[in-house]
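Re: iron/sulfur cluster structure - here you go.
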Amino acid sequence: MSKALGLLSGGLDSTLAALALKRQGVDVTGIVYVTPFFGAERAKIAARQIGIPLIVKDISDVHLEMLKNPRYGYGRNLNPCIDCHAMMFRIAGEMVSQGDFDFLFSGEVLGQRPMSQNANALKAVAKHAGCGDLILRPLSAKLLPIIPVEERGLVDREQLLDIQGRSRRPQEALARQWGLKDYPGSGGGCLLTEKSFTNRLRDLLTHHPDCTPRDVELLKAGRQVRLSPKAKLTLGRNLQTNERLLELATTEHILLRAADFSGPTGLLSGQPEGDDLSIAAAIVATYGKGQNETQVSVLCTQGDKRWQLTVTPLTREEIEPLIVP
Ligand code: SF4
């Protein structure tokens, strides 16, 4: 029995691709990657549903470095899909080289996404991944040239599919036929395709090109307030995000919260200069219950250091231009 390792996002296409192989007797394992932009939850549900093992691999650091300068550029937002897919295949391909699997597969469908899944894009992914001969696309295989995996008899091409185009109907019909019940709709699952998130990410990459996955996590943890090219305040939105900011804080960050009023936690990052800290404290005061006071004490914490600042809250109109949309 041949052994295949497939990129399993947990969406319908990758789940069907895994099933297409499993149904013809291939020993199928899924692999899913974790970064600050996408996680493994959907893949875990899908793997459980179709009864295949799943490898979960955190690639946050290498993925972020690729994202800063993708060879094939970005899609509609900051999604470097060709480079991203190639990276996923390259890492999975290393497991094939080590002899753990015979070939790779994915749920890519020819022509489904005009930019990232046309024939040229599929070729670019294969070339850039460096393991193109090993990559099978079961959902469109009959429309694509025969690859060595098929020539070697590791998979029966006749039982593969010839789906192409943007319509989801063939996949939905197949899901019904194969008894697949719960699957997520198309799209979703990757923050790099969401406009509001990528605005914040673009601001980060512009002002802090050396940013790390932790800096990206801050973008998800609250409102972003750009104080200067080098300093930024992240403002918690609720109890949960306030706690998340405490988790993400390092000794390089300054945490702020009003001393005598409830309100958000703020995390000041970068290299604050001049008035940056007092403006950050005033913003924290503005979003708290002391917003109508003339003076508010704000507690500042950095590692073991603690001190207080007394500030006058600003108006929301004064803060508005600083907020990263
Ligand atoms: S949508 Fe996101 S996860 Fe998917 S290939 Fe593009 S960048 Fe990667």
